[in-house]
Amino acid sequence: MPRAIRGVLIECEPAIKSILIHIDNTQLNNDAIIEDLDETHLMVKEQMVKTLQARLDEKLKETYRVEVPLDDSDEDKGM
């Protein structure tokens, strides 16, 4: 008999979707994503959304570089 799985539709950019799939494959034992629907949509198990979001936040913090503002000293010199 078929079983229903409660899921959440996630819409995101293809780059983020790729990271989510990688996280599911490597860290969550393929337990979060129910179905890869198209280039920008995934169906994810409802109980795994927060876990997946937390892992994505961690991954993005590893790769995100904060831009350092330029020194204002050039403005003082009349440039």
Characterise this structure:
The chain has three helices and three strands, in the order E-H-E-E-H-H. The protein has about 80 residues and is α+β, with helices and mostly antiparallel strands. The chain has a three-stranded antiparallel beta sheet with strand order 1-3-2, with helices on one face. The radius of gyration is 19 Å and the shape is elongated. It starts with 6 loop residues before the first strand and ends with a helix. It comes from Podospora pseudopauciseta. Keywords: DNA damage, DNA repair, Nucleus, Transcription, Transcription regulation. InterPro entries: TFB5-like_sf, TFIIH_TTDA/Tfb5. Belongs to the TFB5 family. It is found in: Nucleus.
List the helices and strands and how they pair.
Elements: E1 7-11, H1 14-26, E2 33-36, E3 41-45, H2 49-63, H3 73-76
Antiparallel strand pairs: 1-3, 2-3
Protein name: General transcription and DNA repair factor IIH subunit TFB5
Subcellular location: Nucleus
Keywords: DNA damage, DNA repair, Nucleus, Transcription, Transcription regulation
Q: What's the gist of this structure?
A:
With 79 residues, the protein is of the alpha+beta class. Helices cover 41% and strands 18% of the residues.
Average pLDDT over all residues: 88
Termini Cα gap:
75 Å
Helix content: 40-55%
Using only C-alpha atoms, the radius of gyration works out to 19 Å
H/E topology pattern: EHEEHH
Broad shape? elongated
Strand order of the largest sheet: 1-3-2
Helical run tally: 3
Unreliable stretches (pLDDT < 50, length at least 5) are: none
Number of strands: 3
Classify the beta-strand content into a percent band.
15-25%
**Backbone structural class:** alpha+beta
Assembly type of the chains comes to: single chain
The biggest sheet, with number of strands, parallel, antiparallel or mixed sense and barrel status, is:
3 strands, antiparallel
Protein name: General transcription and DNA repair factor IIH subunit TFB5
Main location: nucleus
Keywords: DNA damage, DNA repair, Nucleus, Transcription, Transcription regulation
Subcellular location: Nucleus
